[in-house]
Amino acid sequence: ALVAGIAGVFAQKAGLPGRALEFARQLMDGLPERSADAQPVERNVYMTALLDVEEFRIPLGPFGRDQSGQGGSIVPLGDGLLVVEPKGRLDYVSLQGSVQALDQRVPMNTEALVSWMDSTQSTIQLQFYRTLDSLIVPDGAGGQRLLVSHHRFNAENTCVEFVISEIGLGMEQGEPVFSTEGWRDAFVANGCVPVPPAVQMFSGHEAGGRMIQHRPGRILVAVGFMGFDGILMSPAAPQNPQIELGKIVEIDLATGRA
What we know:
This protein has helices at residues 6-13, 17-29, 110-120, and strands spanning 2-3, 42-47, 52-59, 73-77, 80-84, 89-93, 99-105, 131-138, 144-154, 159-172, 175-178, 184-188, 193-194, 208-215, 218-223, 247-252. It is mainly beta. The strands form four sheets. Strands 8, 9, 10, 11, 12 and 13 form a six-stranded antiparallel beta sheet that branches. Strand 5 (80-84) and strand 6 (89-93) form a beta hairpin. Helix 1 (6-13) runs antiparallel to helix 2 (17-29). The longest helix has 13 residues, at 17-29. The radius of gyration is 19 Å and the shape is globular.
């Protein structure tokens, strides 16, 4: 329920360790002037043998059963931060400290998964069912698009897909604006992952999902093995060249081909 580890996310993902820390400190100091609906910022420092970790927390709001969990991501947008919550809700944290819940949600089909769990009395580790990473890339026409890697429940086959969804994104008057065309699949990995009781466990925390753009129109994504290592669960996905699980995959965003 909190934005945390902002500096670490930026340092690793965008190569901007100073920008993230400055953003958080400006929120703490109330610079620029904080808006009337600004959220409180909590600062903690953890001292270890090797380094001191500075953490800033900003409340996003309450979570229900189909909204909480691990995962999520943060990406810089304009003068603020675009936050992708674990179950796909999107927020924008402005430099003035306000948190705006946006009118888009990553298409994870979580409601269908929860309904299936309730109707069949099945249990999976719902906290591991989540969004994984986010990335903003140019769209080739002067605009931008938001990419989000995530899980998606396939109700027809009762399994979980590894998906990268995308949507057009812009800024108007300091606020994010999304394309009216909505979300589309940029990539769906082959090998839909079965869920218990068909398999021993749902290992969504081993899904990977990290994305980088390494050249125009193409990204690299780490697709996790989702527990299918050939020992705990079969098959051994990383050793099977026909399965995209357990691989680093290059994706052509124009065609979705890997």
